[in-house]
Amino acid sequence: KYQISLCSHVCSSSKAPAGGDDEKVKNSSGSQGSPSDIYRYRTDYPCMGVCLIINNKNFDARTGMSVRDGTDVDAANVAKTFVKLGYKVRLLNDQTVDNMMKQMDAVAKEDHSQNASFVCVLLSHGDQEVIYGTDGFKKLETLIKCIKGHHCTSLVGKPKLFFIQACRGSEFDHGMETDSVVDETSAKIPVEADFLYAYSTAPGFYSWRNTSNGSWFIQSLCESLGKFSGQLELMQIMTRVNHKVAFYFESASNLPGFNGKKQIPSIVSMLTKDFYFPTK
User: Fold this and answer.
1) 111-120 pLDDT per residue, tens
2) Residues 120 and 155: beta-carbon distance below 8 Å
3) Fewest C-beta in 10 Å: which of 154, 230, 256, 258?
4) CATH class entry, domain 50-170+190-270
C-alpha cells in the first residue's frame, strides 16, 4: 500500500447571474438559487475528495485467474490523473476480498463533509456483476453498498464515481464494418442517487488490456480527463472515452480467435446534476 495525499485545491463555484425573480427556483433544502445551481454539483469544497484505487495483479492459484500484466501502468496513470484533479489518492495493491470490503467500509465511515465527491477505481479480473479480490470474488453491489446514502451520510447529494476495469464475461466483440467512421420541494434523496458506474466493457464481454501500455479503457479515460476536465461535463468526457475505445483500438493477437476484436465501455449514470472537474 502507498498513499498519495494532495488536497490543496479550492475552486469557486460558478453561478449564473440572477436575471429576475422568475429565474429563481427552490432547491431541495427550500432555499432560493438560480437554475444553474440546482443542475450542477458543487466543487467549492476544500478538497475534491478521496480517490481509492484497488489494483489487483496477482491472484491465488485456486481462483484460476492469471496475472494481470499491464495493470500497474493503469494504476500509475489513474493515480497521476486524479492527483492532478485535486484528489487524495490511495493506491492499494493485491487486496483480498475481505480487505476490499474493509477498505470500502473504512472510507464509508470517514467524514466527507469537506469533500466535493468520491472516486473509486477498481482494476481487477471480473465477470458478470462480480469483481475479484486476490483470493476470490464478490458481487460489485455488495462491495459498494456501504457507500450508499443511508450508510455514508456525508456523501449524500455528492457524486460518487466508480471506474471499473474488469471483464464482465468472456464474449468477444467482433465489430462490424461501417461506411464512416423543476421545482424541488422534498429534502429526501434516493439512496441510489448520485452514483456513476463506468465499466470498461459492455455486460457479458471481455475487456482488453495491453501488457505494456495498460488497458484500452484506462488509457482512454486518463487521456480524456487530462484533456477535457474543466471544459466538458463528465458525461461528455465519458462519451469521448467511449469513442476512443470504440474507434482507436483493436486487438492484435497471434492466438486463434483473439485477433481483430473490439470493445465498447458501458456508462451507467444515476447522477442528478452536471459534474465538472474544476479548472486547474
Assistant:
1) 999 999 999 9
2) no
3) 256
4) alpha beta
User: What single letter denotes the amino acid at residue 272?
Assistant: T
Catalytic residue (choose from 125, 146, 174, 222): 125
Distance of CA 216 to the CA centre of its chain: 15
CA separation for the pair 37, 70 (Å, rounded): 41
- Cα separation of 20 and 6, whole Å? 40
Nearest to 280 by CA among 228, 221, 223, 230: 230
Cα dihedral sign, 245-246-249-251: positive
Strand 266-269 to strand 195-199: parallel, antiparallel, or no bridges (unpaired)? antiparallel
Q: To which H or E segment does residue 262 belong?
A: none
pLDDT digits (tens, 9 = 90+) for 210-261: 888 889 999 999 999 999 999 999 999 999 999 999 898 776 777 777 677 7
- Residue 125 annotated among the catalytic residues of the structure: yes
Residue appearing with cell numbers 462490424:
176
- Specify which residues 134 forms β-bridges with: none
Q: What is the DSSP letter of 177?
A: -
Amino acid code (one letter) for 26 = K
Q: Which of 167, 174, 222, 243 is catalytic?
A: 167
pTM for the complete prediction? 0.82
Structural domain spans, the chain: 50-170+190-270
Contact partners, residue 137, CB within 8 Å, separation at least 6: 63, 97, 125, 126, 127, 130, 131
Cell triple for 222:
486518463
Q: b/e map of 42-69 (b: 16 or more CB within 10 Å)?
A: bbebebbbbbbbbbbbebeeeeebeebe
**C-alpha cell, 62:** 485456486
